[in-house]
Each structure stands twice: as C-alpha cells, then as structure tokens.
Amino acid sequence: MAIGFRFSEYIPPQQEEENFESLLKIFLQLVTFTSGDVAEALSWLNELDKEYKLTSDKYGIGDFIEDLKKKGFIDDGPQQDGNFSLTAKSEQGIRKSALEEIFGKLKKGGQGSHATSHTGIGDEASTDRREYRFGDAVEQISMTDSIRNAQVNHGIGEFRLTEQDLEVNETEHKSQASTVLMIDISHSMILYGEDRITPAKKVAMALAELVKQKYPKDSLDVIVFGNDAWQIEIKDLPYLQVGPYHTNTVAGLELAMDILRKRKTANKQIFMITDGKPTCLKEGLHYYKNSFGLDRKVVNKTLNLAAQCRRLKIPITTFMIASDPYLQAFVDEFTQVNNGQAYYSSLKGLGHLVFRDYKQNRKKNF
C-alpha cells in the first residue's frame, strides 16, 4: 500500500480579518485613553490612518466601523443617530487587551485559589507523601505506596494491610482572598500634562481580568477616591475619568475597610494606586483641604487608618507614582505603620509590580 500526500487548495488568510484584528488592537487602546468615548477614539484612529496608512484601498476605516457593529463591539444606541457606545463584549476585550499588555499571555486555568504554607486535608494534591492520620479522606490514600509498605513490614507471603502501612498523598490548603483596589482620580493624575490615569486604569482592568481568569474564587472590588470615595463596577473601568478633586485617602481607606468587613474570607488586602499625598478630609458636611505640603491633620488621620488595617490583618500595598522625596517619606511611614508593601514605580513598570505583588501576597500571606 503506497503512502502518499493529499493536496488541497491553499486558502490564504482573509485580508479583511487581519486588518480588522490589527485595527481592533489600536481601537481598544484608544478607547481606553478616551475613557470610553467611541467617537473620539474613531476620530483618533482616522488621524493615525492618515499619518501611518493603517488601511488600504480594499479595507478602510468605514469597513472597520461596520465590522465593529456586526461583531458586537459597538452599537448605535436606541435612536441609531451615530452616537456609538461600547458593548459588554468591548469592555471585556479592553480588559483582556490590558491583561496581555501588562501581564503577558496567561493560560486560563481551572478553579483559581491561593496556595498556603499549610498542608493537610486540602484541595490540591502535592508530590509529598506522609503517614495516614485520622480524618484523612480515603481518596488521599496512595495504594501503591501503602501496599509496598505492607510487604516490607509483614512480608510478601502474608498480605496484611494495617493502618500503620497506609501512606497518603499530601494536599495543600487553598483559600479565598478578598481584594479592594483603590484608584486615585484626583486632579493631580493629569497634572502638568502627564497622563497617569490611563496606566492606572489599565492596571485595574488587567488585575480584574487576572482575578476572573486565574482566581475565580476571589472577590475583587474597585473603588475610586477624590474628595470622596465610591465603589464602581469592573465594567465601568474603561470610562474612568479624573475629576477636579483633592485626594481624600481617608475616605478611600474607610470605604475599603467597610467592603472588606462584609467579606467572610479570612484573607483580605488593599491595593492603592496613587500619585499624590493625602490633601483632603471630610468633616461633617464640609471638606478640609490643604494642597501645600503634608498637612499633619490629614496625614495623622491617614496613618491611624493604616494602623487600624494592620490590627485587622489587612495589608496595604501602595503603588506610588511619584519621585518627590518628601512624598516617598510619607509613603514609607504609612507602609511601616501598616506593615504593608510600597513600590515607587514609573508608569511603564506599574503593571508588572502589581502582578508580582498580587502573586507574592497570595503565596506569602495566604
């Protein structure tokens, strides 16, 4: 019987699909920058097309817009008036894009969970073996090792399996974690012409997608803080904008603690992304504000909350987007009081540090 090859007609990849995917990546970046304003993002895309010739005679921006609608990334709204809006598919696409950009490509696993340093009756088998203990599950028993022990202990001629012969597969405990991510949306996040809010949003979206894919048992709550603090949905992250606010870190920490207090998990933590010092407190119906230097009234209240979090065993990891020595000195003091972690990062390295600390906190604290 002759063995040969079967040939078929080669069908090259569709050019339109390749063009769509390449333009989609740029579009998702732009729509993050424009805080979800589709029209402005498409306007920027047109300008980039003029400058860098992103499209061809066969596939233009108009075709791309039609494909965005057909594939469910944008819609025209109820009145079909051309005021495009993002769909849930786009919001998820933006989070995935941020995840790939900041954390690299991660394979989706099964049920995510936090490894601990404890072993016993757990969820995931390890390579370790130990003697049987009362209460161990039957499925943990390693029959091969147990039978071998019986032969060594009692001889091959008379097979007898006793409790002392049993070996079990060691398992590692897994636990859930509750995380609150705090994002500073004060005016300083866009001060002096520097866009610091876009990288902060990307980190938040990447972290949200990471938790969703790798650690589905975890909870992740996101809050923003300016003059006040309030909770937002994960789906709202692409639309986040800076306001004409001061930095009420106290309000953010109080809200984060309220959220974590309602969580039943034993393992809790706070991530805080900020570029400025605390400058604001709310006293009754009025705001106490001072943007000049470090106001001890504001600072002391902030440090008191850091100490309270420490007593509640809630570590705070602060990502400080600033290089001012006196601001770093404040963060050092804040971190020491909380016994947490602090990183002074450039915008480029922020995502890597968030990911690294999230993974390290899981391994170390949980």
UniProtKB/TrEMBL annotation:
InterPro entries per the UniProt record, alphabetical: VWF_A, vWFA_dom_sf
All copies of domain VWFA, residue ranges: 179-277
UniProt organism field: Pontibacter arcticus
Identification of the protein by name: VWFA domain-containing protein
CDD domains, A to Z: vWFA
Lineage: superkingdom: Bacteria
One of the Pfam families matching this protein, by short name: VWA_2
Positions of the UniProt region annotated as Disordered: 107-128
